[in-house]
Amino acid sequence: MPSTAFHAPDSVEDVVALLAADPTARPLGGGTDLIVQMRSGRLAPGSVVDFKRIAGMTGVRREGDGFVIGAATPCTALKADAALAAAWPGVVEAANLIGSVQVRNRATMAGNLCNASPAADSVPALIAAGATCVVAGPSGKREVPVQEIPVAPGKTSLAPGEFVVEIRLPARPEGGGDAYLRSTPRTEMDIAVVGAGVSLVLDADGTCTSARVALGAVGPTVVLVEEAGKALVGTKLDDDALAAMSRAVQAASNPIDDKRGSVSYRKAMAGVLARRAALIAATRAGAKA
Amino acid sequence: MPPFDKEFFATDRLDLAPHNLFDLVDRLDGLAPGFAAIAQPRVHFAVDGVLEADWSRDLATASEVIVLPRVGGG
Amino acid sequence: MSKIHVSTTLNGDAAEFLCDPSASLLDALRDELGLTGSKEGCGSGDCGACTVVLDGEMVCSCLVFAAEAEGGTIQTIEGVAESAVLHPVQQKFLEHGALQCGFCTPGFIVAAKALLDRNPDPTETEVRYWLAGNLCRCTGYDKIVRAVMDAAAELRQDRPSERTPA
Amino acid sequence: MNAPETMKQFRPKEFRHVGTRPVRPDGVDKVTGRALYGPDFKAPGMLWGAIVRSPHPHARIVSIDTKKAESLPGVKAVATGKDFPTLQSLVMHVGEGASDIVHVARNCLALDKVLYEGHAVAAVAATTPEIAREAAGLIAVEYEELPFVLGLEEALAEGAPLLHDDVFTKGVDPKPDKPSNASMRVEMGGGDVEGALAGAAVTVTGRYTMEPVHQGYIEPHACVASWGGDGQAQIWCSSQGHFAVRSLTASVLALPQADIRVMPLEIGGGFGGKTTIYLEPVAMILSKKSGRPVRLAMTREEVFRATGPAPGAVIDVRIGADADGTLVAADVEFKYHSGAYPAVDAGAGVASAIGHYKIANTRVVGTEVLCNRPAAKAYRAPGAPQVNFAVESAVDELAGKLGIDPLELRLKNAAVEGDPQTSGVPWGRIGWVECLEAAKAHPHWSAPLGPNQGRGLAGGYWGNYGGPSTVVVSLTEDGTFTVTTGSPDIGGSRAAMAIMAAETLGVPYEQVRCVIADTSSIGFSMVTGGSRTTFATGKAVVEAAREVKQVLCSRAAKMWNVAEDAVEWQDGEMVCTAGEKEGTRITVAQIAPRVAFMSGPVSCVAGINAAGWLPGFGLHICDTEVDTETGHVKIVRYTAIQDVGTAIHPDYVEGQIQGGAVQGIGWALNETYIYGENGKLDNPGFLDYRMPVASDLPMIDAVVVEVPNPDHPYGVKGVGEVPIVPPLAAVANAIHAATGKRLNSLPMSPDRVYAALHPEG
Lengths: 289, 74, 166, 761
What we know:
The complex is a heterotetramer. By secondary structure, chain B is of the alpha+beta class.
């Protein structure tokens, strides 16, 4: 059984070099998925590369009106950033549904994203919010939309040597609001059976001018359902519009039957949760407009 | 005395006059060899309506013994 | 693979240990440092029995590589009682009978103290959600929640009642 | 809050210590992390073990090649099932039920066949845990896969894969000539069930189902064994009964029991699941081969895959009543999983089904079914919650059909002292009616409900137990006392023992300390289980303490040169009550240093076979709120009422009731074993085996009813088992009240509730 090496370099370049040198190497942020996977034998990386000690990897900073979240920033630290929590409450709440307080004190949104689980709680909220991430790799840095990272359960589009160094959220649009809801059997310590993130913008008279709806656990990756967003745009989120959105959500849902939920239950919940999340997002948009 | 009636004796009632429960077990084993081997781990006796833990108790004044499956606990 | 040397501050004192690169902080605490108060109930961050405070935040020590603790500050259940008397949370667990088998108790006490360190007046709901990462199979949580609320009340009064020597 | 008023109502007399809530003697060690549990113990020079487990649910072991593992540096021993001695069938009862020691041994390490995914097939011991795990991976086991069967009805079907060719259904006449997966059938009852059902004004019929659930103790199994060259051995482990560990380990290894000394470590939860052995004989074999102490410990995943779940069930119920609500007939037929080896929950299930009601015509049939799952083990009131779920759901449905209040229907038919149980044995002084009356009087029963809320109730019972226990009460040299028992303390029993000793001796609680001795330091004591410890071991404590008083009084009499009957024990003092020395007193603290200068130290042993135990009854009221769009069920209020006889330490009595109720709520709502089509367990962890977390629950109002047991010096009946019995139906009945939908299949998880509410899909 080859043992795993542990590295804690102090520069992004060193991380990239270590990851590039060994295709089995894994970057270590919070480690809450990685350590479990190693312990269960699902993963046996040649080395683990802890990038938390690199300056700027932990914490939230403003860039213009937008937010830059270091890849090693634990989920609970997002709540502590009042401006972020006010601008993107859906994202912050989604990240703070993961696991328990203990887990969220370690777990990061970047890790949640790169673990590439279709049920990742923070990812639908990030996608709805139009978040991007900055990827560092052997050929430098690139910025990509969050939804382009996961490609299949447990698989990402990251090339060898690449890792996510930060997540970027745009400025909150005027009249914007977001929300994320999930369905789990328990109130905490659970994996989403279905998750729904909604981000929308209302104009002064309450008409929706743009909307993004993203769903978790209804397909191999988190999905952005453009039809669902379109169903809301131009409406005041009346019952017909919400019903149309729910239908679009259900049409876009292609879940599996597994130990956490059935196809029919997941499809039904996707519609219910997206509607409820849209209403919360609208309330937030209205409250802030 | 289910399930021991069907498992061992092919009857639900027997007329015996044992002097105590050890003696009863011996007599039942005589009727159905093998009963004595499982009596301690699997059987409880109720003597005149009360579960009896002491198998040496004199049964001279007892009128009825019910044979029950022994129940454990969690 | 050779072992890694790690230096930490553990319950206020300098502590060093050697660990396998893939060992968890919980493994190091229990097997290298002999502190078996932190328990392993699952090894996957789902039960909270291994809860410790690392650099000011409570974490599942089974979800931290021991090597990550280099230069860090760790508080375990063994360091909760200060000055040889029980912390109010420990005291209230005893007074309310908030433990039965006691196996999950260290994790609950570390987590509850972490809550009260930052929120001196939590609601019952806040206590329940904060402690949702700690599984208890014996008590049904009722007496645990009461003990934590009572400890909070006592800490707010800043009037330490009689406490048992640790 | 809890209901002291109810307690006062039934308390027969005032006690000094009984009924108080002192801090438990082992408390400080447990809140500071100092207490040593099963996985905490290490022996000098100890090796670390690892176990190889079957990936197949049913397979013949063709060969096991251990050569590679043995040649790995650091590996000191390898064990397989062939290392056990040849064993003859011997049925033993160590507390949870009867087991054949051949099956116990095979479950520790398979021989010839594996019977479930996770079945242990080999083990290694090495100098580090990493090497042990690596070596386990190098053991090559060749399997010939066999067809497997998981379901109850499937396992009983013609042509089903047979687990054992030497198991013939017990309890059927004539004796079967073909082996079967039905290991036992138990039938009880009497009267004309069919006739009475045909004549009943109202009948209900239902089928109820559930998969196995796990005990879910947070401490995984672990032990250290050290087997010396002279044949004597020591085992350090946590269990519900170290004497059971000794007797089972000695039996499967063909050793004299006196050669094994089992040290009881603190136990991190058991709930019935730690009344057997999994690791100890394997660690013993590895220790003997290596000449060193060996530690074996399970991961959580191993606990789920290989240790005792409670059986799942298929239960058919028919109940009939007259128009006035008199129950006239009940027909209950259930099948329980016994898993890989014959188990014994059917008898308990039959005894726990309908005995709480007076019904003239009854038939209760239970069948134990072998299947390719882990061997079922006792779980809190083993065998009772499953069948109670069916019966109490059906009674609720009957109340609805009759238009009678479900509490009144239960009161009308409730069994009382003297009424026959299903076995024919009459009930003793039970407190079932008192629980129902307490429920009626409780504010919860009449509190208003909010939207989408519903209220359900259910009652249940458990027989409790007595049996053998040994206790030594010793006077120290300064007049304080030690109480030594052989009963592991799972939930505060040291405190209960100290209270009962202090009450008997009339001394302060703090002057009595209770410890649990190893198997070589105290006489035999049965497991802590079956709600027997406070009753049976407590009885022994009182008996030994009484003898201590008697001995000290006679010492005082000798010292004073007065007749023995002239000295009385009064509140921890010996007092001369007659003759010229009348009024002379000596305290325990004064006489204690002198006893060594008389005939010797004072230490009294009570080895008893405790009789006179009485069953416990409970009645639970549950309010649920159902999110009809998602199927989520929230428990908004819960009251658990129970007759305990007498509460020795009410905190731990309430705690048992609350904990049991929450285990039942978990069983009702989300806990379940999920197997894939490949026969492998799909949720072997706390993430997907969803036990309740703190935020899932409200406070649990534990109402202690005290109808004292006349056969215990302080009235104890037993507490721990009963509270897991009623919750399954209480929750189901509350969901029905909230939604109009009756869920007959557990768990009532959001997807199931949703499906019931939205049958169109």
